[in-house]
């Protein structure tokens, strides 16, 4: 199951090798680079087209956003994006999404197992297609790079962690960790804009003053302090991975004069820390702004966790959030479905491994 894959992937030497390889290759295939920014921009265009098709009528943003975000991982992992109506792709994404929702609810372990088995079968089919057309001189994505490394090590007779199970485990982990998290954060962002129209006004005012109708780029971030603060505050309040990936010491221990209790730390305790945040339970972008409206970093902002095990995809996630969110706000005004007031938009999360917004629909009225 997916849980077993985490366990396989996340222990000892195997984890070290896989993490190092994943980081290097995610960078090679674009994480934090201009090429990746271009992919995100291209994907934004597809997403905007989908939103436009609803012609201002309310709709559930889940699927289109999941497809767009997932395509970024697909480009990096397999080397190409998929069309939103490709059944192979939609079932892959829908499955990952259902898997994530099911983790943490033991009563549905059986269906969870079935879903992840199908997910594995589908990936094995994709891998064998990539293997057939593999060109070691020109890796299309992460899977190619892994297959080439595996082949080279096998030819030289070296025993290594680069075996088929770890390839599957790593790809599943990149999908599981890289789609739902970012997509959920974006959906929280749009929901919060619909709920707080005055804050949406301020974001749109900043965007039209600083950017106008041209495409937002990562470089613009420094000139968009309010938008940046809104994205950070969305991540803080949405607190989408409240338990992080649960780690704990094997016993109570004192290390360099610090007492560490044998317990699982919660990110919630930092993101909602009453001694750190002026309004921990409210949506308050000013948490990240100084009195002159400049962006300020906050030490207690750690939605990606910290330390050696911290999120491997942080820079990719930040790139995605910083392109998708402002671009969507340049093109659309977001509001609640007809008959629903802003007050009635519910911010109670739906509980799963990640905290998703409860079911809701939004109107996206074209403004460009
Ligand atoms: C807003 C988006 C995201 C958030 C909030 C987030 C958050 C987290 C958190 C809290 C952890 C656990 C860290 C720990 O164990 O202490 C984690 C781990 C991880 N994340 Fe992310 N993540 C996001 C996006 C991504 C993306 C886009 C990728 C894909 C490249 C990714 C890949 C991973 C991986 C592979 C791990 C496991 C790292 C390891 O065990 O060494 N994440 N993430």
Notes on the structure:
There is one protein chain. It is built from 13 helices and six strands. It is mostly helical and about 375 residues long. The chain has one domain (about 1-365): Cytochrome p450 (Orthogonal Bundle), CATH 1.10.630.10. α4 (about 60-75) packs across α5 (about 85-100), α9 (about 180-195) packs across α10 and α9 (about 180-195) packs across α11. The protein is globular. The model is unreliable at about 105-110 (pLDDT under 50). The structure holds protoporphyrin IX containing FE (HEM). Protoporphyrin IX containing FE binds next to α2, α8, α9 and α13. Protoporphyrin IX containing FE (HEM) binds near residues 177, 185, 241, 303 and 310.
Topology:
Elements: H1 2-9, H2 12-28, H3 34-53, H4 62-77, H5 87-102, H6 109-132, H7 142-155, H8 164-178, H9 180-195, H10 197-210, H11 225-238, E1 253-255, E2 258-260, H12 268-271, H13 314-331, E3 332-336, E4 349-350, E5 356-357, E6 362-366
Antiparallel strand pairs: 1-2, 3-6, 4-5
Helix pairs in contact: 1-8, 3-4, 3-13, 4-5, 4-8, 4-9, 5-6, 9-10, 9-11, 9-13
Keywords: Heme, Iron, Metal-binding, Monooxygenase, Oxidoreductase
GO molecular function, one term: heme binding
Cofactor: heme
State the main characteristics.
Cytochrome p450, 6 strands, two-stranded antiparallel sheet, 13 helices, mainly alpha, binds protoporphyrin IX containing FE
